[in-house]
Design brief:
Layout: H1 19-52, E1 59-62, E2 67-73, E3 77-83, E4 86-91, E5 95-98
Length: about 110
């Protein structure tokens, strides 16, 4: 019966290297940092600078798509004039961009 079952011999057993998983995790963290975390921080810093620089007379676009001219600025809020007789009070953080002068045309 021994001719049906062959003997199993250990081939050169290799020890598990603990350095490889750590290296892989470091490479993955580096990829996440440069592809996700760093660009998001850069975008957040740019938006914070934009919010801090808002002034009366700036023409702005809100995150909701409302276009208007700033008529009042306080610490947390801005007043945006959207037509001749309509002004909206909104949070400064809702301003997504400052548009070029002349974009907002009160017709």
């Amino acid at each position: 019966m021994d001719f049906l079952i062959s003997n199993a011999y250990a081939q050169g057993a290799q020890q598990a290297d603990a350095f490889n998983p750590l290296l892989l995790m470091a490479v993955m963290f580096g990829a996440f940092y440069f592809l996700l975390i760093r660009p998001q921080r850069k975008k957040q810093k740019a938006h914070t600078a934009l919010i801090a620089a808002l002034e009366v007379g700036d023409e702005v676009m809100t995150s909701g798509g409302i276009l208007g001219r700033i008529t009042g600025v306080s610490e947390h809020y801005v007043i945006v004039k959207v037509s001749d007789n309509a002004e909206l009070k909104m949070q400064r953080s809702s301003i997504s961009q400052v548009v070029p002068k002349g974009t907002y045309d009160q017709a």
